[in-house]
Amino acid sequence: MDSLPVFVADWEMQCCGEPFSIGTEVRWRLEFLYEDEISAPIEALLPPDSVVTAAATASIADPDAAEGLRGVLNATWHGTGGDRPTPPVAGTVRRIRLVRQFTVREDRLVTVIRVGARLTELTTSRDRFARGSMRTPEGSWEETGLLVDLATDLGEVIASVSG
Questions:
Q1: How does 10-43 read in b/e, with b if 16+ C-beta sit within 10 Å?
Q2: What would the mean pLDDT of 74-91 be, rounded to a whole number?
Q3: 34: helix, strand or coil
Q4: Deepest in the core among 109, 121, 135, 152, taking most CB within 10 A?
């Protein structure tokens, strides 16, 4: 079993996620989102040379365009964006970190700063997340989700993200 970082967005967890702890066996739908599609912290990014990234980018027509692309495994309870339903992937939670990220608001535009996230070790997941804590004139620190190390079968993950 390989251990992979999986981002669980605050809104996904608050809406439909089931509480979990270190050691919990889970079955989650995982989607591969490119780094410009999600505001997960940089610690959640898979390396461009990982087999998961290669499987997810295999369908890109221009292989040169796929070179260097990075992405995040995102847990979702709302289905994945593809044409076919993605089966859940089984795994065991090995580590849980609360993610706090700095956010900047200008009118209705919210920008989440991915670099410099503050990660706090947890033993049990959260189902509620704080908004607007530690405000500064520039923005505020917000709890944006959980970063989970998931021990799982790499073949299941590859099957889930390819296609």
A1: bebbeeebeebebebebebbbbbbebeebbbbee
A2: 78
A3: strand
A4: 152
Residue 12 near residue 75, CB atoms below 8 Å: yes
State how far the Cα of 158 lies from the Cα of 163, in Å rounded to an integer: 9
For tokens 């079955």, name the residue.
27
Backbone angles phi, psi at 88, to 5 degrees: -65, 150
Confirm if 131 and 144 have CB atoms less than 8 A apart.
Answer: no
Instruction: Give tens-digit pLDDT for 26-59.
Output: 999 999 998 888 889 999 999 888 999 888 888 7
Ranked by mean pLDDT, the top range of 59-63, 78-82, 94-98, 100-104 is 94-98
Cβ atoms of 52 and 162 closer than 8 Å: no
**pLDDT higher than 70, residue 24:** yes
Q: What is the pLDDT of residues 122-137, one digit of tens each?
A: 999 988 887 666 666 6
Average pLDDT of the residues of the chain: 86
Domain that holds residue 151: 2-161
- As given in the structure block, the two tokens for residue 75 are 């847990």
Q: Please state the domain count of the chain.
A: 1
Answer yes or no: are the C-beta atoms of 79 and 99 closer than 8 Å: no
